[in-house]
Write a structure and sequence with these properties.
Strands 8-9-10-11-25-21-20-15-18 form a nine-stranded antiparallel sheet, with no helix packed on it. A six-stranded antiparallel sheet has the order 14-23-22-19-16-17, with no helix packed on it. The chain has a four-stranded antiparallel sheet with strand order 1-2-3-4, with no helix packed on it. By secondary structure, the chain is mainly β. It has one domain: Beta-galactosidase, Chain A, domain 5, CATH 2.70.98.10. It contains one helix and 25 strands. The two termini are 33 Å apart.
Length: 297
């Protein structure tokens, strides 16, 4: 499997075009010390599953599509499940596809993916570009989705990073509502973020378990590692009003995933729920979004 490394004196990344356009690692270099910011993949053991990568893109939707179907423009669209052990399709096609390198420099790489609606996966045709760029201690992930069809298509964008989890890591982000939590028996309208799940102003993650999609995300978050004195700032373009926190029990990672759409957004929008974040891309149009990780010692 091809691994393409981009590096400067502050950070380095490994890009795996064939494994969902994912990253194999994100490392921070400071005072002759290298620290893993994202959980690195073991290419000898886990090279066939992007869920073991350091980061992967989510497009043309984020999260799950409950029941593997949704209605758009009055037509029922079916989407097959795409991951072992999970009954609903999730996170789109990008992370399960092989991307092609379109262009590359010392600090940037652009990958391309073409999807035909007749293929297994999302029931709309589209073309996508994924660009990773490093500058100083910054990594920017840019996603573009183009609709070549004569009819509009629904779309969502996001990134799924697996951050290294330490005992003292602290999170800081704003949210207003909870769209879904895996322990919720009903997935319909969002509810106000409980005080115990409010990370506004910053607080330790500790051993809390989350698989939760929040709304009212204000396009920025911070992750602080007190022991290493490293801060990871996350900023996004203005479409990203949702964020999913995934912190499974007993694992050495957690995920803080900026996304443009809420969990199960296609079905919620079809039921008339507002604020799900679903975007429609018109014929011949492109939707774009960026997420930047700024690492500082």
């Amino acid at each position: 499997m091809q691994e393409i490394v981009l590096s400067n004196d502050k950070i380095s990344i490994g890009v795996l075009p064939e494994l969902g356009g994912s990253l194999s690692f994100l490392k921070y270099h400071q005072n002759k010390k290298t620290t893993d910011i994202l959980r690195p993949i073991n290419l000898n053991k886990d090279k066939n599953d992007p869920n073991n990568a350091a980061l992967f893109p989510m497009l043309p939707y984020c999260g799950r599509i409950r029941g593997g179907a949704f209605t758009y423009w009055g037509i029922l669209r079916k989407v097959p499940k795409n991951h072992t052990g999970i009954h609903d399709p999730l996170h789109g096609d990008g992370w399960k596809s092989s991307w092609k390198v379109q262009k590359k420099s010392e600090t940037s790489i652009t990958l391309k993916l073409s999807h035909n609606k007749e293929e297994i996966g999302f029931p709309f045709s589209y073309e996508a570009e994924l660009t990773y760029t490093i500058f100083g201690g910054n990594l920017t992930v840019k996603m573009d989705v183009y609709n070549p069809s004569p009819l509009p298509m629904p779309c969502g964008l996001g990134v799924h990073p697996f951050f290294v989890k330490t005992k003292d890591v602290e999170l800081n982000f704003k949210s207003q509502v909870v769209w879904s939590n895996e322990s919720d028996p009903i997935f319909d309208e969002p509810y106000t973020t409980p005080a115990a799940w409010n990370f506004d102003g910053g607080k330790p993650l500790n051993n809390a378990v989350f698989d939760t999609c929040f709304g009212g995300f204000e396009e920025q978050a911070q992750i602080f590692y007190p022991t290493n004195e490293i801060t990871v700032g996350i900023t996004t373009t203005d479409m990203f009003h949702h964020v999913t926190l995934f912190a499974p029990k007993g694992k050495n990672f957690f995920c803080l995933e900026p996304c443009t759409n809420a969990a199960n957004a296609f079905n919620l929008a079809a039921d008339g729920v507002i604020g799900t974040g679903i975007r429609s891309i018109g014929p011949g149009q492109t939707i774009s979004g960026e997420v930047t990780f700024k690492i500082q010692g």
